[in-house]
Amino acid sequence: MGDITGPKIAFTIPIFGGLNVTESTIIGWMIIAAVTILVLWMTHDMKKIPTKKQLIAEIIVTTVNNLVKSTMGKKHLNYAPYIAALFTMSICGSLVSLLGLRSMTADINVTMSWALITFAMITYNKFKYNGFLGYFKGYTEPVAFMTPLNIISEFATPLSMGFRHFGNIAGGMVITSLLYYALGSISKAIGIGIPITTVGIPAVLSVYFDLFSGFMQAFIFIMLTMANVGNAMPDSRDD
User: Fold this and answer.
1) Which of 64-78, 121-135, 160-174, 196-210 has the lowest mean pLDDT?
2) Residue 121 · residue 78 · CB < 8 Å
3) Per the structure, how many domains does the chain have?
4) Calpha distance 229→123 (Å, rounded)
5) What angle do CA 81, 86, 87 make, to 5 degrees?
6) Would 48 be classed as within a structural domain?
7) Is 238 inside a domain boundary?
8) What secondary structure does DSSP assign to 62-115, as a single string?
9) HSE-CB for 65 with a 13 A CA cutoff
10) Could you tell me whether strands 19-22 and 9-13 are parallel, antiparallel, or unpaired per DSSP bridges?
11) Which helix (DSSP H) or strand (DSSP E) does residue 162 occupy?
């Protein structure tokens, strides 16, 4: 069950006045290590006639490539590795709660960092395809008095993406935790020493919020990333 007060500080590195390393950072590196080992195992000793593990790896790569191709266009398949990595970190960061760890995606610092990377990609492509003057001219379209709203809309993109993902996962964790404690209190109130009322219902909700909601939020996040970055490229989906 997660701590609804936020990620705990695991230790502090004595640099820059004290750099706090939270459990979200440690969990993130654990996921990176685990996924790296899994990928190396699945792609080791690849053959022309694929083995089962190689076939699974090829299906995953093909699925991601097709998703990026259909959303952003064949010319932008170079974004496929990032989209795959983003989805993997998001879904694994949510599902670690099933192992008794705190969901990494229930940390606003994590989801907002991903959103800011997306924002950096959007800005980069707008400069790349429109030029310096064209980028700032875009804020005045379709008419000049829309400039303030266009500026707000531009910076609202990473905020909405980061808070949406964080809010759904953190909200589910809070609801599950509160229900668990409430059912435990009911057991004590009716004089049952063993909190039997906490068995079943919290587990079902945990599967929903962690598994289903975690998967959906990861999918929505990568789709928004591809859509927003793709919109910054005029040749997106031309092919």
Assistant:
1) 196-210
2) no
3) 1
4) 9
5) 100
6) yes
7) no
8) HHHHHHHHHHH-GGGGGGHHHHHHHHHHHHHHHHGGGGTSPPGGGSHHHHHHHH
9) 9
10) antiparallel
11) helix 147-189
Distance of CA 108 to the CA centre of its chain: 11
User: Can you say whether the dihedral through the CA atoms of 118, 77, 226, 92 is positive or negative?
Assistant: negative
* The pair of three-digit structure tokens given for residue 185, joined into one six-digit string: 């209190």
pTM for this predicted structure: 0.81
Token representation of residue 190: 């009716």
Provide the 8-state DSSP code for 21.
E
3, part of any domain: no
Q: Considering the domain boundaries, does residue 2 fall inside one?
A: no
Q: What CA–CA distance (Å, rounded) separates 37 from 33?
A: 6
Q: Which residue has the tokens 């006639």?
A: 49
**Tens of pLDDT, residues 83-116:** 999 999 999 998 888 787 888 998 999 999 999 9
Phi, psi of 20 (to 5 degrees): -80, 130
Domain that holds residue 112: 9-231
